[in-house]
Amino acid sequence: MQDKGTFISPFYRPRCLAAAAPAGKAKLTHPGKAILAGGIAGGIEICITFPTEYVKTQLQLDEKANPPKYRGISDCVKQTVQGHGVKGLYRGLSSLLYGSIPKSAVRFGVFEFLSNHARDESGHLDSTRGLLCGLGAGVMEAVLVVCPMETVKVKFIHDQTSANPQYKGFFHGVREIVRSQGIRGTYQGLTATVLKQGSNQAIRFFVMTSLKNWYKGDNPNKAINPLLTGLFGAIAGAASVFGNTPLDVIKTRMQGLEAHKYKSTLDCAVKILRYEGVAAFYKGTVPRLGRVCLDVAIVFIIYEEVVKVLNKVWKTE
């Protein structure tokens, strides 16, 4: 019974209600689910966005020293279609597809593994830790998958546009590269690739983590509409493009058929700056911006939706 002389503040809430306020601990994603969902998302995404990747790579390889073969994005598309048909925009798809599936699998698997250990007691992952987990995921995908697969992809595309193509297909190309240059031939530009992928995923997961935390507020398990996930992904993708396009240009040059012109990643950067100017570091930015925004949006949408399905059929808790 309350004493009549006792004053009760209007801000007072019974302890039992205060305890019920938190929305609960955030649900964690098992790394195994992340690997499977990431692989599926990566495979679907690359089939949709490859033509823009092809155009971006062609423009970056079209060095000023040769005189330029293409006058821009539309001219590159026009010449490719006229010379090889629409399927010409998909030349080199196999090499990228074989890399995209394990790349996304490693990325999301490592990110979820690291983030599960970096979360606080309530399961919350702050933006800074999201950035560090993204950095770790990017470095791992660069070393295990991206560098060798991207090297083969760039060499394959460059070879197919030469006067006398020497690679008959993806596996034949890999055999020829390893036979003539050894395993080292598939790891050209490793430093640039690690820097690019590490910064890429650090920026993307930082932005995604920040936006998701903002949207969810005090409810860590609040559902996010797929379209909103796509919007967050597109913003994260755009941020990563403006943040590391120079590294992408250097990586592409280091992995091309003329990589022998450069002694190292630093030497490549210095020569581009000296002979082509600062603008060369942003060559292919427009097609890359369109591809990356669509790429990241699609990947995150598919990933999140596949995880939802896996949570229903694969119980890990």
Automatic annotation (TrEMBL):
Belongs to the mitochondrial carrier (TC 2.A.29) family. Signal peptide: none annotated. It catalyses: trans-aconitate(in) + citrate(out) = trans-aconitate(out) + citrate(in); citrate(out) + (S)-malate(in) = citrate(in) + (S)-malate(out); phosphoenolpyruvate(in) + citrate(out) = phosphoenolpyruvate(out) + citrate(in); citrate(out) + succinate(in) = citrate(in) + succinate(out). InterPro entries: MCP, MCP_dom_sf, MCP_transmembrane, TXTP-like. Coiled coil: none annotated. Solcar repeats lie at residues 29-117, 128-214, 224-309. It comes from Stegastes partitus (bicolor damselfish). The lineage of its organism: Eukaryota, Metazoa, Chordata, Craniata, Vertebrata. Mitochondrial electroneutral antiporter that exports citrate from the mitochondria into the cytosol in exchange for malate. Also able to mediate the exchange of citrate for isocitrate, phosphoenolpyruvate, cis-aconitate and to a lesser extent trans-aconitate, maleate and succinate. In the cytoplasm, citrate plays important roles in fatty acid and sterol synthesis, regulation of glycolysis, protein acetylation, and other physiopathological processes. Its main location: mitochondrion. It is found in: Mitochondrion inner membrane. It is a multi-pass membrane protein. One of its GO terms (biological process) is mitochondrial citrate transmembrane transport. It comes from the Eukaryota. One of its GO terms (cellular component) is mitochondrial inner membrane. This is Tricarboxylate transport protein, mitochondrial-like. Pfam families: Mito_carr (PF00153). The keyword Hydrolase does not apply.
